[in-house]
Amino acid sequence: MRPVAFITLIFAAEFAAAAGLGGGAAPVDVPDTMAERVKPCIACHGPEDRTGRDGYYPRIASKPEGYLFNQLRNFRDGRRYYRPMALLLADVSDQYLLEMAAYFSALKQPYPPPEHMSASPDEIRLAQQLINRGDPSRKIPACVQCHGKELMGTAPFIPGLLGLPRAYLVAQFGAWRTGGLMRGQAPNCMSEIAKQLTPGETNAIAAWLAAQPVPEDAAPVTALSAEMARRCESIVQRGGAQAEPGG
User: Which of 3, 187, 182, 169 is nearest to 89 (CA)?
Assistant: First the structure.
């Protein structure tokens, strides 16, 4: 069942119950809370990433608030395109997107277990080199410079890299490389980095990351270095409560 159709059924069932159309059932008193309002989101975006017939649904709980706001606004404004998300968010204000982002950022759910390591010893060494030290000769920064020492992201705009499946990480690298994640935008730092990496390097990085357990009490770090803030200013300036509508 497609997400939009499923969500439509949810709303139809709730409306029927509230109107007393369910075979004489008593009206349901639904609390007016964000947890209730985002139940259609959780129908697809649960505690674990999963694949549906028409797409891949990533886990969004605990991701940095600014990152989630950016992605929601990008879907709404057509910079990222997935039709069900575009339809759901078409008329949603920036303020409501911020409230949704804040809710999911604060939502704590258990992470899935790490995947089995599917990399050779040489690939593991290559991944650790790029993740911890980068490659200065190609102007590739270490992953930890933006995503934090524990690789759980940097608040408020940069997501974590652990707790994600290898296939998803590989696909994201490919989308950054080809421009599939963003439309009508000048290349940003992640796009430039992905274009420098070979398929073998991205496969090794993804396999190593997917095999790492998420640290207990994991949380994003709170500051990005001045150097990386300058290099990735397109990400930093597009998020948060100060962002201009449609910017």
Answer: 3
The owner of tokens 């593991």 is 124
CATH number of residue 169's parent domain = 1.10.760.10
Tell me the per-residue pLDDT of 120-139, one tens digit each, with 9 for 90 and over. Answer: 999 999 999 999 999 999 99
19-63: pLDDT as tens digits:
444 455 667 777 889 999 998 898 888 877 777 666 778 889 999
Domain that holds residue 207: 121-237
DSSP of 213-244:
PPPTT---BS---HHHHHHTHHHHHT-STTPP
Whole-model pTM over 0.85: no
